[in-house]
Records
---
Amino acid sequence: MAKVAKKAAKKAPASKAAKPAKVSETHESATAVKGAEPYRKTDTRGTPLVEMKDISIAFGGIKAVDHASIDLYPGEVVGLLGHNGAGKSTLIKILSGAYKRDAGQIFVDGKEITIDNPRDAKAHGIETIYQTLALADNVDAAANLYLGRELKTRFGSLDDTAMEAATRKVMHRLNPNFRRFKEPVSKLSGGQRQSVAIARAIHFNARILIMDEPTAALGPQETAQVGELIKQLKAEGIGIFLISHDLHDVFDLADRLTVMKNGKVVGSARTKDVTQDEVLGMIIAGKCPKGAIPGPGALKDAA
């Protein structure tokens, strides 16, 4: 009878304590958010192609980027999202050498590097394609590809034949249907212009590509063409940071996404682990869903 009593005592449920009211607060570490098991950064992919740790920069005392961390693996597309002024473009400009960070570290292939200007970034295989594309409209594709890095003959004149041959080769990799090599880029379609800008980046051995709003102002057909270009670059092992306001593009093209708000990272997730509505919640309210890894800028419900 004593044994039965002991078993009954073990099975007796403990009384539940009343839960306090929920409040919202900003957390400073990933462990502060409870919920379903999220995607873990410590996976089997090895060393990231590029990693930015605790990056900060301020303008006039206002922190545009505040201890932001982000990484990218070979053959991966990471979408960077956030409202205007969230800090995403500033963070990427630090990686491209346009801005010099105040604090933080940048690693390429696991080795810490210093990027003080765009030349440093290019030396480490980092190329940027801005929304404006930065193309010279009055010259053809070959001239744009080699702008500032022109090939010359042994007599010192421009080697137009060699530059056009190399341009045809790299363009064939990206867009086999491209034929308008002799026309100025001002006469090309939006998708074709993107092809030229991407070709210029990868021709000089870019391993890390930053694309700023690549489908902005493009029609459906041209957007699809750019999407195919991005998939081709992924297949070649090139890592891509995709800055976009278009959630459809990010969910179609990105493997992972990171959301920023007020200079801080709200969270990161695999696109298959979150919904578009949840990502909108991250962008607008800073609320990190269960399928994402929260960052310093996320809000949580304290239990």
---
Amino acid sequence: MSADSGTLIGNPIPWPNDARCAVAVTWDVDCDSSLNIYNPNKADNLVASQSFARYDPLIAVPRLVTALRRLGMQQTFFVPGWCIEKYPAAMDLLMEGGHELALHGYLHERPNEISADDELYWLQRGIAAFTNHTGQRPRGWRAPSFAFSKHSLAYLVEEGFVYDSSLMGDDVPYVIKHKAGSLIELPTDWTLDDWPHYVFNRDFKFTMPISAPSKACEVFRAEFDAAWRHGGLWVSVWHPFVSGRLARLDAAIDLLGYMLAKGGVWFATLGEIADHVRKVMDEGAWKPRVESYPLYNSPIPELTRIDGKDARRARSR
């Protein structure tokens, strides 16, 4: 799709086989890792929430593997390293189904809420868990809770990652650059996350109004229609213990059927999309937008008045 074809995207990427857009259905398989992060001293006593979270590996993942086999689709599953260690049978089911596994922290820790040293420790521990089980190092990363820190890019480059899918800065892939190297960014957005639509759980410290699946999929479908019209990338962020439940998965499968019927859609894993992005870049067929990180250090100097007084103090009065 060329820039003069009516698209609102200023730098549209050519998709394989002249597809109108690319779709990657991705899943964050958090299991009960985040329950322990949010409730480190009492998760053992939150039995109802344990069952809520363990629906992930025990019920939803086998269900998804079966449903996706019927659809003939392979998708991307982001998994914390602790969950890989705790639920190896679920990981094996995903791998046997031909799905891509990517890393999602170790215990769903939020990198931008811990020290730089701790961030690197948990990243490397997650990589070790991933490598020990799969026999391969992870190529893809999504920061837990999208909590990408100013140190994350450097660490991911140093550890050999190929792509990230934590950021929200475009409608097509772009490149995020650090002096140590760069990654392909495969962006998403909160509009494509199931969490704001469905999650009500006090132990997870989220009490969102629960939407009907039809309402959530109305949002997902609108975003897809726009991606199809303008040549964009559609990346869902769904959770098996959320969208893998019966009514919600029914609606998600209906949405995928709508996409299939519309035609001109490239369904791919994020790893496949990253490989395609690299290919068209290397061939000179497309030049991505590049952003360098970190953007700045806080507090920014403009918070200090030119007469030397602290503008933050003046503003708070």
---
Amino acid sequence: MEDTIRLYRTLFGNRAYVRSVCEGAVFLAASSIAIFAAVAYATVHASNYVTDFVLSRVGPFNVRFLFIYGTFTAFAITASLLAGRPNRLPFALKAMALFLLVRAVFVALTHMAPSPIDPQQPAPFFNSIFYGSDLFFSGHTGLPLLAALAFWHIPQWRMFYLALTAFFGSIVLLGHYHYSIDVLAALFITHGVFQMSCWLFGRDYALFRSSESPAAPRPTRSLVAPVVADQQVPVELDRDDEGAARPADVQNISRPRSLGPARRRPGVVQQPRERPQPRQQVRRVRHL
């Protein structure tokens, strides 16, 4: 807890970080307005529903509880992950905002009515949020996949969000909340959105991953020859492009195995070889 508070103080004392968070919040607010406007426009101008290969053979089933409260649970878990590591906040805000903006464009272009679903409607508040003609593409499938790609370097959260993607993809098909093309297209579009986010917000993505230390690389043998026994040679190892810029790790290697010249390897700084000094020739003076 103390480390988290110290991290909050450090980051919010940085003007660049505060500016990045504010930019992400403004971008997310603008994208939320865009998606709500697109959903309202698509709902008013919706045409008839169409047949679907999967929906014609499955359901509809009453999965409203899982559909609604599962969404709130997923958002609560994600919010706790972001709150525990504030360095993740700028990239998360901007990536989600870009996702909503791209989805708003697709929703505004497609005006199909949803497939017939369970006639029992939920409360009006939930009905206005979760039910409409915003079909292409599925946000319930895309957002968990976006989180899985962002947390790909953490195996347990990667598997959790991938499982959540499959869960919500099944739920929206069983309840006839989306067509099958909406679910399948969400996987590819979300991957494209993530790649665009990494390209547009590269520094924020590096900061997102800076709190997790990557696996330590194996030490590389010295390439300096000849080497005196017990000599310590500094070796600078490359680091994957993850996290904020940090000084290169320097490891000391004692008693290297190679006693002669070897091939060059990337990431190793060689010390210049000292040339042997020529022997001074001593003139012999012949006594007469």
---
Amino acid sequence: MGRATFRTPFLTVNEDRGPQTVDGRSKAAVGRRPSAVEPLHMNPSTYAPQHFRWDYADRVATVTLDRPEKKNPLTFESYAELRDLFRRLVYVDEVKAVVLRGAGGNFCSGGDVHEIIGPLTAMTMPEILRFTRMTGDLVKAIRGCPQVVVAAVEGVCVGAGAILAMASDLRVGTADAKVAFLFTRVGLAGCDMGACAILPRIIGQGRAAELLYTGRVMKGEEAHAWGFFNRLHAADVLYDEALAWARELAAGPTFAHMMTKTMLEQEWSMSVDQAIEAEAQAQAICMQTRDFERAYRAFVDKEQPTFEGD
């Protein structure tokens, strides 16, 4: 009896023949960034994703995971669309900051059990590897976009949802939020989507090891005490506070913010001497910007600077 054929957003699989295409492209195109002939810029005012909600105003975009009836799980399709969005934001100068949130009082319950976990058990190793690399590409895209990403976390934030919060630049949460890197509870390793590299940088090696080995829940107050949450807010004002913080950042020297984000990411693989030299060069570049000159003129005139990100 022939084996089944099924589709995901990153591959078409015939279980006898293996993956054939990725979003209509050949296997050779898997994981490749858009070519120079593809449209890289998007209009943030008209962008209309299919698998999450998008709002844009005042130079700040809000990405809302919007399946509240299931606590906003991720699917093959939403993984791929989120990856493609954050890759494209590199070319969207109008967006200066991003808020990432979930609908209905929860952040994200991780990968959908029936739409992801079930199909994964029927895939071959090469097919699974294509999926795990795609999920990692989403983390790379979040960390690689120039915008500061603020995660607003309430309710359930587990599995891949905890990874999305971890991959963000800043995190605000509620005291009753439940964060769990629960991969070991489903028979998987804690090393998923960069968790073993990124989480220790945020909360320390020992605390990260505890969460990744046990998969236990970290409540909001503990997450704040450990440095995972930058700030705590009541649930009814959480999004407003996250949005206000994002707008404050968007009104700042956003080219300099991009440089800070780049250095925070790259300096982990540098020696101290290399980092000092990299920062000397980065700061010299920022000293050539108009924002630096605006700040100087404003100081001389005893005014507040108005930054424009150039």
